[in-house]
Design brief:
With 652 residues, the chain is α/β, with parallel strands linked by helices. The chain is built from 22 helices and 21 strands. It has a twelve-stranded mixed β-sheet with strand order 9-8-21-20-19-10-18-17-11-16-12-13. Strands 1-2-5-4-3-7 form a six-stranded antiparallel barrel. Strand 20 and strand 21 form a beta hairpin. Helix 10 crosses helix 18, helix 12 packs across helix 13 and helix 14 crosses helix 15. The two termini are 28 Å apart. The relative contact order is 0.13.
């Protein structure tokens, strides 16, 4: 526990008991019981999981009330009955039991109390005598046992266990509601490295008094780096605001964490009415912005593909988006979608090792560029292609096209489209001609070439008319002749430990899904290469996903799914994820059980509350989460916090 935090209690380090036979817990006990401040009652019964305390209106009033969710401290008064323990000589080490107020409880005299009230109202008695008043002000509350604060005898600091080692007869305990300075220290006792404020303890949505002192809640950036963080809550409950606080906490303490933010509403990349400043405004020198918008400011990178130059990325867009949009095309488009666009190194290897396969591949590239032109994908400059056709087929095109000369191997895409179309028309009528057979007897046009030719000409190899190139028209929206290397730009930002903000505002769901899947795979593979070559070091990558229920699978059976892999393997690759959603039940159990940090805002669905209360830390707060709707009011637990804390998150 750091010296600064200890100072909150008004005790300097040198004033504290040392680990040599003395207990730091005694300091808490002294502060808690000083002048009997915070005394709220007695224990009626106590067990390993829960208990009942008794209190009265007087104790509630002098302590400003005892709200639901209140943290109470059960302080052991020591076993002092010498007649019983003279020969046993047993000492109970100082410790503090932490409990949470759950609900009212019955007392042994509850029925008598109810009878008294009934008789009073029936008799319409105007006043009560002092003895009756005294009897009626007593009540009981059920509490849930959270754990025990005790002394770490190795280093003299305070420690915490999420259970009880033992419990004693109720008369050995007194119950205190901790002062703000004590509660603040207990709440933040294990937030050691680079603590930063995220909000303050808020026990209830109802606030009757403005006099209550803030109990600051801190977080540590280390809790989130390389970890999995979940943010659950309905729309407009402050999930994005919490994410911004988290990002800011990380940015303020380290330059060694790369971030990828999938910004669905543009609020991280742009200044908006909700916040005075965006993440980009605060950390301009460490952020790169990418967008799909057509008229974005100059300092945005265009998150589209130049389909003519970035063939692989462009083809990935078509392949993935076609599947999501159910774009038709039947069997004839399958080979085109399955076609693998090669990286430069792979292409060079193919050229060296299999010249025939290299030629067939380059023929597909040539026809594909002509197809893009025919679908009216714009180019800022002329695009030329090499006609990967043998001389005899170029002669056929020469006879069919007035402006074409068979000696021209290099032509612009417009002429290339005409040449390939003429050859295809001839092929349909003369498939059995030996010029369309290889020396081994195989067809000159392989399956992929046939598929692309069908798209280009709107004709199958049997002459049947099809939709053809019209299938690709929707993908023009993702092409921009000014674009270039968008994915490489994101990966470069990651390598430089920058924050890549992807402005996907107004983007359709399928596009968000595509970019999320594609980039996650690229970055995962990049981190895996570093891991296998022992060059990962201490650099981390942190993902931030919104509307995660649209991305993440509901089960963990697909071991190839990128999000399942991030959940299972991300930690060893220095990859952390923060995901926000309205639905707990839509996510895979494997992801949830591997999640270390949780922020729970308002959820109103019984099924979601049931899922929430499956987590041990949130077993007591489910129905409270369902009732309270204040924006930014969350129940939080992180790797540094030992129990769920109700927090009002500060505005970013």
């Amino acid at each position: 526990m750091n010296d600064k935090v200890l100072g909150i209690m008004g005790k300097e380090k040198e004033d504290l008991p040392s680990k040599k036979g003395k207990y730091i817990t005694n300091v808490y006990n002294k502060l808690i019981k000083e002048g009997n401040k915070g005394f709220v009652g007695y224990v009626m019964n106590i067990g390993f999981l829960d208990g009942t305390i008794i209190t009265n209106d007087y104790y509630k009033i002098i302590n400003g009330g005892v709200p639901q969710n209140s943290f109470l401290l059960l302080v052991n008064e020591g076993i002092t009955d010498k007649e019983l323990l003279t020969e046993i000589n047993y000492e109970i080490p100082p410790h503090i039991i932490l409990v949470r107020v759950i609900e009212p409880a019955s007392t042994p005299v509850s029925s008598d109390t109810s009878k008294t009230y009934f008789e009073l109202h029936k008799a319409q008695m105007p006043t009560l005598d002092i003895f009756t008043k005294s009897d009626l002000q007593w009540s009981a509350m059920k509490v849930s046992v959270l754990g025990t604060f005790f002394d770490n005898l190795e280093d003299g600091s305070i420690d915490y266990g999420g259970d009880l080692q033992s419990f004693w007869s109720p008369h050995h305990y007194k119950v205190y509601i901790p002062e703000p300075k004590v509660l603040e220290q207990l709440v933040n006792a294990f937030v050691v490295k680079s603590p930063s404020r995220i909000g303050q303890v808020r026990l209830t949505e109802t606030l009757l008094s403005k006099d209550a002192k803030d109990v600051v809640v801190n977080i540590s950036a280390d809790d989130f780096i390389g970890a999995r963080t979940a943010l659950f809550g309905k729309t407009r409950m402050g999930k994005s605001n919490t994410v911004k606080k988290m990002i800011s906490a990380i940015m303020d303490v380290t330059n060694n964490v790369s971030m990828v933010i999938f910004d669905l509403n543009g609020e991280y990349a742009n200044t908006n009415e909700q916040d005075d400043k965006s993440i980009y405004d605060l950390y301009k020198d460490r952020c790169e912005r990418f967008t799909l918008r057509d008229n974005a400011p100059k300092d945005f990178h265009v998150l589209k593909a130049n389909f003519f130059e970035d063939l692989k990325f462009g083809h990935e867009i078509i392949k993935n988006m076609h599947a999501q949009l159910s774009g038709g095309g039947g069997d004839y488009i399958k080979a085109f979608l399955d076609w693998e666009v090669l990286e430069a190194d792979d292409l060079e290897d193919l050229k060296k090792n299999d010249r025939s396969a290299y030629t067939r591949y380059m023929r597909c590239v040539s026809i594909y560029k002509c197809l893009l032109h025919e679908v009216k994908f714009k180019s800022s400059k002329g695009v030329n292609v090499k006609l990967e056709l043998k001389k005899g087929l170029r002669d056929i095109a020469d006879q069919a096209i007035d402006d074409y000369d068979a000696s021209d191997e290099y032509v612009d895409v417009s002429m290339g489209a005409a040449v390939y179309s003429a050859v295809w028309d001839h092929y349909i009528e003369n498939k059995t001609d030996k010029m369309y057979k290889s020396s081994s007897g195989k067809s000159y046009f392989d399956e992929t070439t046939t598929s692309i030719m069908t798209l280009l000409t709107n004709k199958k190899d049997n002459g049947a008319s099809v939709s053809g190139k019209r299938i690709l028209i929707p993908f023009r929206a993702y092409h921009d002749p000014r674009a270039g290397g968008a994915i490489e730009g994101v990966l470069d930002a990651i390598d430089k430990s920058k924050c890549a903000i992807l402005d996907l505002s107004n983007a359709p769901e399928e596009l968000y899904r595509f970019f999320s899947d594609y980039l996650s795979k690229q970055i995962f593979n990049s981190q895996m290469r570093k891991f296998t070559t022992n060059s990962l070091g201490t650099k981390y990558v942190q993902f931030f996903f919104e509307e995660a229920h649209n991305l993440f699978p509901s089960n963990d059976k697909d071991l190839k799914n990128i999000y399942n892999r991030l959940a299972k393997e991300g930690a060893k690759l220095n990859i952390g994820i923060a995901y926000s959603t309205q639905s707990i039940s839509s996510l895979s159990p494997d992801l949830l059980k591997n999640t270390e940090n949780f922020f729970i805002a308002h959820l109103n669905d019984d099924r979601e509350i049931k899922e929430l209360t499956r987590f041990h830390e949130f077993r007591d707060v489910g129905y409270d989460v369902q009732r309270t709707k204040t924006r930014g009011f969350v129940r939080m637990i992180t790797r540094s916090h030992k129990f769920a804390i109700p927090v009002q998150i500060d505005k970013f």
